[in-house]
Amino acid sequence: MQPSEIKNLNIAIVGAGYGGAxxxxxxxxxxxxxxxxEQAPFSGEVGAGIGLRPATMQRFRQWGIFDDIAxxxxxxxxxxxxxxxxEPIMKDAWPESGDLKQTHLIHRRDFIDALLGxxxxxxxxxxxxxxxxxxxxxxxxxxxxxxxxxxxxxxxxADGIKSAVREQLFSKKGPVFAGEHAYRAVISTDAAHGMVxxxxxxxxxxxxxxxxxxxxxxxxxxxxxxTALNSDGTWTPNVTxxxxxKTVEGFDERLVAITRELDLSTxxxxxxxxxxxxxxxxxxxxxxxxxxxxxxLHHQGQGANSAIEDAGALADALVEADxxxxxxxxxxxxxxxxxxxxxxxxxxxxxxxxxxxxxPGQKPDAQSAAPAR
Length: 373
Hints:
Layout: H1 3-7, E1 10-14, H2 18-29, E2 33-37, E3 49-52, H3 54-62, H4 66-70, E4 74-76, E5 78-83, E6 88-93, E7 103-107, H5 108-117, E8 124-125, E9 130-135, E10 140-144, E11 149-152, E12 154-157, H6 164-169, E13 176-188, E14 201-206, E15 209-216, E16 221-229, H7 241-247, H8 253-260, E17 268-274, E18 286-288, H9 291-294, H10 303-320, H11 324-347, H12 355-358
């Protein structure tokens, strides 16, 4: 589309999470009029740590916000996977993007604050719960819980795994339980029993459990994540510290000690869900992105990264295509094959013997000699 055409676009984004905020930045840089509508009364993203891959940081460089994000991160050179008791299985550098080689480890709270902080004042409207979306072909109409209506040339549904936009226009199928729980906490580095020695992600696997240690040394903290098999699909299950300790039996005693010493009131306890791939992400004037389009299990650490990549691909498509309709088709054609594969890989209940399938093309030669456990 011509720059003048993009500047005449009125774009409404539903959801002010990673994808929505990133899309708002990318599209506003093109000159479009952008408004973001978030159901929460204020920015309240919480949780633990995530890793922003080099390709994601490359997008932030493109949008001129690299430094805003990087200053609240710990850059990591590699990730390592170990057995439950700490024997190395594989160690590899992060996939590079241009001259960027490091994955930046960041707290979710800091990440969303940094993204929202680079948006123009007044662009994000909190306390707007979407009740209804009407697809009118060349435009769409949003109706919020307070009765307010908004008309837009393009609506982006970035409203998460329980997306109202997806449910009303694209798929009635709900989230799918993965048979796992995720217990996440952020603790001080001092409480990590000496296990945080640098800025690199380590994953310990065994006995149906995965333990992630993601350093946030710029904060003096570490993100501690236990993902364990569990048949209770309650969205926010009732779990005790003793229950958590049982999931790490047989692990390095320091990991057991960290788990035992957790303050339950600070632990995020969630059943793990994703969605089945959906056939169509867009109409002529509405598109899904991020978890609304392709929520995936966290085993690949690609949820937030995929949302950022969606935002970049959507902005690129608007520049390359001749109309909004063509741009949305190009956007889906570019991103859906990638996220379909990530969803598939992330669903694998992987063990040490399956790492080449889970991290395709990244299995080092040394791993083939590693003893099976």
